[in-house]
Design goal:
disordered N terminus; Alpha-Beta Plaits; 4-stranded antiparallel β-sheet; about 150 residues; alpha+beta; about 20% helix; 4 strands
């Protein structure tokens, strides 16, 4: 293992507590940080980057395995797609049959290019049967503004 680089300390007001920042990476006990295969190391850290897009897609399934397998397959097929930053699978704590995939894109143009492309439908097909049709729209697209 290499040495950890030391960052300069931020100046603080006298008497103010020093602020420490933990380096982004896997949580204790996690080997891959929960990142999609092929995702960059910062994926899933929650760091908001202005101008990035977050695409939220809701699914319903009785078993987590139904969704997890399809999500892993999609994540593998999206690895290396220009502009794709990360894809995370979430399960509702209040409704165990509700799942949410949050994908992050570096910019609107990259997402639009992929969505209009010929591979889009095939790449997302493993989860299509599980789209949450009880919602007005099973997806939302958000731009990070701050």
């Amino acid at each position: 293992m290499g040495q950890r680089a030391r960052l300069p300390r931020a100046r603080t007001q006298p008497g103010a507590p020093a602020r420490h920042r933990r380096a982004a990476g896997p949580a204790r006990g996690q080997r891959d940080g929960g990142h999609a295969p092929g995702a960059p190391p910062h994926a899933g850290t929650g760091a908001a980057v202005k101008g990035h897009l977050r695409v939220l897609v809701w699914y319903r399934a009785a078993a987590e395995a139904d969704i997890a397998g399809g999500h892993a397959e999609i994540a593998r097929s999206l690895a290396g797609v220009p502009g794709m930053v990360s894809a995370e699978l979430h399960r509702s704590r209040t409704d165990p049959e509700s799942f949410l995939v949050i994908s992050e894109w570096s910019d609107r143009e990259s997402f639009d290019r992929w969505e209009r492309g010929t591979e889009h439908k095939g790449q997302t097909s493993p989860l299509r049967p599980y789209l949450d049709r009880t919602r007005a729209l099973p997806y939302e697209i958000h731009e990070v503004v701050g």
